[in-house]
Design a protein that fits this description.
The chain has one helix at 67-79, and strands spanning 4-19, 26-40, 43-56, 62-65. With 100 residues, it is mainly beta. The protein has a four-stranded antiparallel β-sheet with strand order 1-2-3-4, covered by helices on one side.
């Protein structure tokens, strides 16, 4: 007996501030990469498809992107303030400690 199938993986690449095409509000958009991999005996072996999208955090609308568009948005995000930081890490700042 051979057990095979597919499994999906969702990666969040960046959080961008864009104007939503659906609601028209300037809001945060999650840039995501969805990869579907072929599995054999529940072990993911190779990617079958890769899709990119953005999702508006205000209204929830999702827009599909090409790989080139996604790479361009990700490059713009890395060049902005705080760009190049690992997700969830605050930008490094040199502040003086609080003294009452």
């Amino acid at each position: 007996m051979i057990i095979f199938g597919t499994k999906g993986y969702l990666y969040q690449l960046a959080i961008l501030t864009l104007v939503c095409t659906q609601c028209g509000n300037p809001s945060a958009h999650a840039l995501r990469k969805r990869v579907t991999k072929f599995t054999l005996f529940f072990v993911p072996l190779f990617p079958v498809s890769t899709k990119y999208s953005t999702q508006c955090t205000f209204c929830g609308a999702e827009s599909k992107l090409s790989q080139e568009q996604a790479e361009q948005l990700q490059a713009q995000d890395a060049g902005g303030p705080g760009g190049g930081q690992p997700y969830g890490q605050p930008p490094q700042q040199h502040q003086q400690p609080y003294r009452p």
